[in-house]
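Thought: the user wants the 3D structure for the chain below. I'll pass the sequence to the structure tool as-is, report back what it returns, then summarize two notable features.
Action: structure_tool
Action Input:
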Amino acid sequence: MQQERAAPAPSGRRVLVIDDYDAAREYMTRLLTAAGFVVFSQSSPIGATRMIVRERINVVVIDLHMPAIRGDKLVALFRQNPRFKNLGLVLVSGVAESELETLGRAVSADAIVPKRSLDSSLVTEVSKLASRS
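Observation:
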């Protein structure tokens, strides 16, 4: 499990990116770091709960297709845990936007971002969620 850490930032601007595809995870990390977020990243959802608690994560960006557990199932698990009621959850994927919207709505994700729209949407969506924490 790979973890990366950036320099300190104000409270409310702490993000965890979970994606098993290295290039996508690194790209999202760079986008968010450039926007002033403290970004942690993992190639697997295993250990995410521990990371969220330990690093006081405010927003989690989760890829839909991962080997250990699908991203929508992970979002559903976080939604069931009262400890994470204020955690912002963003589901990302390369699937059709309509499918991503349906999956995101079904598990109460706070936002969905198609991977083809990372440049135009990721920072905006994460910023909205970070500002409410």
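Final Answer: Structure generated. The chain has one domain: 14-131. The domain at 14-131 is CATH 3.40.50.2300 (Rossmann fold).
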